[in-house]
Structure formats: structure tokens, C-alpha cells
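F.,

This is the one I mentioned.
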């Protein structure tokens, strides 16, 4: 569902625009003509195809602050001749 707001309405009630963006894009007009579109960040990522990959997350400056302790591997199984 697309919500349309004038620039004036947007300026006067930004929280309304943010709430409306949760259900679909918000078209903001300037002098009656479409000027801007407001959408949630997750929708923006979906539309642009720019979701974070594991490589993006590893390269984060704060990645060193993330606690990560993988479980110790207890045993390995060797491949049999059939699985080669």
C-alpha cells in the first residue's frame, strides 16, 4: 500500500510517515508532484539487493568486539572409499 503525503504533512507529522512506511512506501510530494519516497531500511536493502553478507560483517570495524567461541570438535569421521 502506498501512502502519499505532501511535504508539509511530512514535516508536521514525521512519526505518521515512519509508521506508514512499515506497511509500504510513502510518497512525499512537493507542490503536488512526487519528490521523495520513504521506506524502511530493510525494504531498501531488499529493493537494492544490498543485504549484508558474512564478508561485510567480518569487515566491520567493531567485529573485534563480537564474542565468538565455537564449540570444540569432538571427533572427525574419515570418508570411506564410496564417498570419494
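My design for it:
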Amino acid at each position: 500500500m502506498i501512502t502519499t503525503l505532501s511535504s508539509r504533512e511530512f514535516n508536521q507529522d514525521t512519526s505518521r510517515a515512519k509508521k506508514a512506511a512499515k506497511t509500504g512506501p510513502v510518497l512525499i510530494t512537493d507542490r503536488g508532484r512526487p519528490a521523495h519516497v520513504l521506506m524502511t531500511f530493510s525494504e531498501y536493502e531488499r529493493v537494492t539487493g544490498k543485504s549484508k553478507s558474512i564478508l561485510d560483517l567480518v569487515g566491520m570495524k567493531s567485529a573485534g568486539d563480537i564474542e565468538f567461541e565455537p564449540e570444540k570438535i569432538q571427533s572427525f569421521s574419515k570418508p570411506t572409499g564410496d564417498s570419494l
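The longest strand covers residues 33-38.

Talk soon.
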